[in-house]
Amino acid sequence: MDHRFKELLVLRDAKENGDGTVLKITTKGDTVIHAISVAREGFSYTGPTWTYLFESDGLTLIDAGEAGSLPRLEDGLAVAGFKLQDIDRVIISHGHEDHDGAVSELVEKADIEVWAHEIYAHLQAYDPRTISRRVISPIQKEMWRVADLNRSFPPTSPQRDEYVRRRQALTIDHPIKANETIGKLEILHTPGHSPDELCMKLDEVIFTGDHVLPEISPHPTMKAEFPPEIKANLPDSYKDADKWYGLSRYLQSLKIIVDFGPERELLPAHRYYNRGHFNFINTERAAIILDHHGQRLTDILEKVGAGEVNLEDLTRAVFAHRELLSDNLLAGLSEVVAHVEILEEVGDLEVSEDGVISATGVSNHLGFLSALQA
Ligand SMILES: [Zn+2]
Ligand SMILES: [Zn+2]
Question: Which residues have CB atoms below 5 A from the ion given as ligand 2?
């Protein structure tokens, strides 16, 4: 598939996976967007982080790449004809290390305003794992039991600790409220992959961060509840974590993108170029991911069948063996849990206190999906 921008020029040639690529895109509304791919230090399945630079009531950068990658961002900016000091603001698409990791380095070197969704500002004081590792249901308890048993742990390192510390110290100059605009840029809150995920619309373009990606389906969060010490410090409108976490929320946020119609080109944060070719996508990609999760709900319900099944067996039935090797098991388990949570909520599945899954004999998720896609 080809792109539908007015023009796209390659300013610097891509490596096989897109590391270090710099593009100059001109939209149909004559906005110039520089797409700068910031390579990662080690191997990364998702590949480099694509950052985007454009003028909209000030020179605006979306994301900065992982911690330690500032020299690579600077290098890409130079190819586009800019230096750090030219940038007025950086907008964090969401609070994951491959997007906001280099922001603290960026603001140490240049006077740049930091913008992020206001829930980012409310949660940045805490290690994200304080929330994501909090067990709130029998199925989540079972997930951690199986992960521990198989020694599939969330990766930890001194670098991660340093990232969490620097993120806590970062000042958010402008906490973004839903549906703000800056010049021509319209900001949308699309939680689900992350509670603070933002998509941004400019002319025919939607910047999608990790919300919609080519080639891979973004990892949805599981349901969550804020621990009391965090909840106590949140404004009332943020206390209900159901609004920001879980697959159901993610699917609703995908629908927001689908509803913009097929003429919108998407600029994602990963895989825009991979294996020697571009992956141009439009809103149809959001519909495909939505459909993929719908089919997975049906598939999981079928695999549970008429009997009882445990989470590990169910996960091994859903994914191929090679997809669950080493630390990937936890990712596979949490993906299945996110789907089981919807099936349990609509009444298609029941989960016992000790985490055993059984079907109730109804398929209410089909109604849930058609209501979502209407
Ligand atoms: Zn992410
Ligand atoms: Zn990412």
Answer: 98, 210
pLDDT digits (tens, 9 = 90+) for 102-142: 999 999 999 999 999 999 999 999 999 999 999 999 999 99
Helix axes 138-149, 311-318, angle to 10 degrees: 70
Q: What is the mean pLDDT of residues 304-329?
A: 91
Distance, CA of 261 to CA of 203 (rounded, Å): 13
pLDDT of residue 263: 86
Cα 254 to ligand 1 centre (Å): 15
- Give residue limits of the domains in the chain: 7-298
> What's 7-298's CATH class?
alpha beta
Rg (CA), the chain: 21
> How many angstroms separate the alpha carbon of residue 323 from the centre of ligand 2?
19
Q: Which-ligand-closest: CA of 66?
A: 2
The rounded Å distance from CA 309 to ligand 2 centre is 33
Query: Which of 263, 241, 261 lies closest to 341 in space, CA to CA?
Result: 241
Residue 206: partners with Cβ closer than 8 Å, 6 or more residues away: 199, 200, 257, 260, 264, 265, 266, 267, 283
Q: Is the whole-model pTM more than 0.85?
A: yes
